[in-house]
Design goal:
Strands 15, 16, 17, 18, 19, 20, 21, 22, 23 and 24 form a ten-stranded mixed beta sheet that branches. Strands 4-3-7-6-5 form a five-stranded antiparallel beta sheet. It is 46% helix and 27% strand. The protein contains 21 helices and 24 strands.
Length: 603
């Protein structure tokens, strides 16, 4: 047998004239099972709806239903919480919803909904909308069409994807934009340049790439610190953007290099060089000048190289390289200039690259050597020497410093080479100091402006003095005027540190740079070297003679000694001695000699 559920009812009746009870029973087992199943389903449905509600809240999904016939829009109970607005502010109709959308998204959104309702295909759309107290945010809506029971409805959900969109924008910014200046980076520039070049080739129009480099920026950056350098780069970026057209692209390549892409210079009948030069001149005028940073003015100039496309190439990488080559030509012409790419410049660039590559190996291959040019007094006695760098490049012989020192400075190799020169000169000085001589011999070392500004320079000098036991007063550092004019307080502090170590400070090539009497008065100097350009014509040019006489007089009044460079004749030596300069250096006495030959002369 089996157990069943029954429903019984009793009623009073008369049975054969007597009162009786009539019992009626009905099997309700199936009905009870149905009720239990419905209750179970209702409970399960409520549980699943709660799970969906919690999940929607957790993932920021607001469910809704759109009645396409009436336009009524109904939201899930938790939609207001999910979207962060009171429920009463949620749109109640499709038309109200459209009013919240960004003007550019309103029509496309409505069209997407209509297409879904007409085709029955799923609906999906990303849009911007403004909710109360929320501002403009990004949303994604998607849904399915429901046509059951003759209805025409769209069931869907909306999620706030603002954070996702911001993350995408940040990824794009990191991938295509320079983080310091906000300008396009190399990747984005190359993409736009290739598009512009392709269009120019097809349309007959021309464009240009302008490679902009800040002259002597490394010197300023090392002197003032990278924080100040970054502020300066931001100002440069702003000036670039303000100078060119909105449709042009300004990019930062890294360091102090910027590129301007002028996508269109006009048709074939126009002279593209004229248009490119006009833009370059505007940039040079705007970028060269004074920059105020942290209350101090800093003067900068720029060198600009130009490649015109499609004349100078069609591939983006080639055009960028050609503009870079032209920029180096501008620097070679004296900085603060503009140069156009020409095919013959490429061979110069190849030569420069080969020199840089070989120079990187020169120190470890022992290809560098110091020659020493004597300094003599009035009696023609050798009292010191200047250490001059020479490079024996395999397959090329002796390379002039004029050919490789600028490359060493541009590539950053000057730090390694400068340190080697300092230590090798100190080693030679230590050996000479051990010789039996009444008057010790001093050695002068040339210091690059970049080397002088390096944060570790003073420590490097100190270590060399200690390692080679150099006596005070024997090592002279020859520093160019350009090293002394920026950030005078920092320069004074650095020179005072060197002076406390017993180092002699000499201003090299005096008169060829800024020649400010202010720094002569305030800097802790010991010596001025009169540049050979004044000595050369001292007999024939009264202006040069007057300048030399003035330099000697100023030095004497400031208790600084003078050394004349480039003395080649007895008459030049005689005039210099008559004016009060008795320390000379030049071919009259000796050319720069290898150490062994100098020692024979010295002894």
């Amino acid at each position: 047998g089996r157990r069943i559920d029954i429903e019984a009812s009793l009623s009073r009746i008369a049975w054969e004239g007597k009162p009786a009870m009539l019992a009626t029973t009905r099997d309700i087992t199936e009905r009870r099972l149905g009720e239990q199943e419905r209750q179970t389903l209702t409970t399960e449905l409520a549980r699943k709806e709660e799970i969906i509600r919690l999940a929607s809240n957790a993932y920021g999904i607001a469910s809704w239903e759109l009645d396409w016939t009436t336009g009524e829009l109904r939201w899930a109970e938790s939609a207001g919480v999910v979207l962060g607005v009171p429920a009463e502010f949620l749109p109640k109709a499709h038309s109200e919803n459209l009013q919240l959308l960004h003007p550019q998204d309103c029509v496309p959104f409505d069209a997407a909904v209509r297409t879904a309702m007409e085709s029955g295909r799923p609906f999906r759309f990303e849009f911007r909308a403004t909710l109360p107290d929320q501002g403009l945010r990004w949303f994604r809506s998607q849904g399915e069409v429901d046509r059951t029971h003759g209805r025409s409805r769209l069931h869907g959900a909306t999620a706030d994807i603002t954070d996702y969109k911001l993350a995408l924008q940040e990824i794009e910014r990191l991938a295509y934009y320079d983080p310091l200046t906000g300008l396009a980076n190399r990747r984005l520039l190359l993409d736009r340049l290739q598009r512009a070049s392709t269009h120019a080739s097809r349309s007959g129009y021309c464009g240009a790439v302008l490679f902009v480099d800040l002259d002597r920026f490394k010197l300023l950056n090392d002197s003032l610190g990278h924080g100040v350098g970054d502020l300066l780069l931001r100002q440069i970026a702003e000036r670039c953007v303000d100078t060119v057209r909105e449709e042009d692209t300004v990019a930062r390549m890294g360091g102090d290099e910027f590129v301007v892409l002028v996508a269109s210079l006009g048709g074939e009948t126009a002279a593209p060089e004229d248009g490119a030069r006009t833009v370059a001149e505007k940039l040079r005028a705007r970028l060269s000048g004074e920059y105020l940073i942290a209350g101090h003015g800093h003067h900068l100039t720029v060198s600009i190289g130009i490649a015109v496309f499609p004349r100078d190439g069609e591939r983006a990488e080639d055009l960028l390289h050609h503009a870079d080559v032209a920029m180096y030509q501008a620097k070679k012409q004296g900085r603060d200039t503009i140069a156009f790419y020409a095919a013959d410049l490429q061979s110069n660039a190849d030569t420069r690259l080969a020199i840089e590559q070989d120079l990187r190996l020169a120190v470890e291959r022992n290809e560098l050597e110091l020659h020493y040019q004597p300094k003599v007094d009035a009696s023609r006695q050798v009292v010191g020497a200047e250490a001059l760098l020479r490079w024996h490049r395999p397959g090329h012989g002796l390379v002039s410093p004029m050919d490789f020192i600028p490359i060493a400075e541009e590539s950053g190799l000057i730090y390694v080479i400068g340190k080697w020169v300092l230590r090798d000169a100190c080693a030679r000085l230590a050996a000479w100091s051990r010789c039996d001589r009444a008057q010790p011999l001093g050695v002068a070392v040339n210091i690059s402006p970049l080397q002088f500004r390096h944060p570790d320079f003073v420590a490097c000098v100190s270590q060399a003095l200690v390692d080679f036991s150099i006596q005070p007063g024997l090592l002279t550092l020859e520093i160019t005027e350009s090293s002394l004019i920026e950030n005078i307080d920092s320069v004074i502090a650095r020179l005072n540190e060197l002076k406390r170590m017993g180092v002699i400070i000499s201003v090299d090539d005096f008169g060829t740079g800024y020649s400010s009497l202010y720094y002569l008065k305030h800097l802790p100097l010991d010596e001025i070297k009169i540049d050979k350009s004044y000595v050369r014509d001292i007999l024939d040019d009264t202006n040069d003679a007057a300048i030399v006489e003035s330099i000697i007089a100023i030095a004497k009044n400031l208790q600084l000694r003078t050394v004349a460079e480039g003395v080649e004749t007895e008459d030049q030596a005689r005039v210099l001695r008559a004016l009060g300069c008795s320390l000379h250096q030049g071919y009259l006495y000796s050319r720069p000699l290898p150490a062994a030959e100098f020692e024979r002369l010295y002894n």
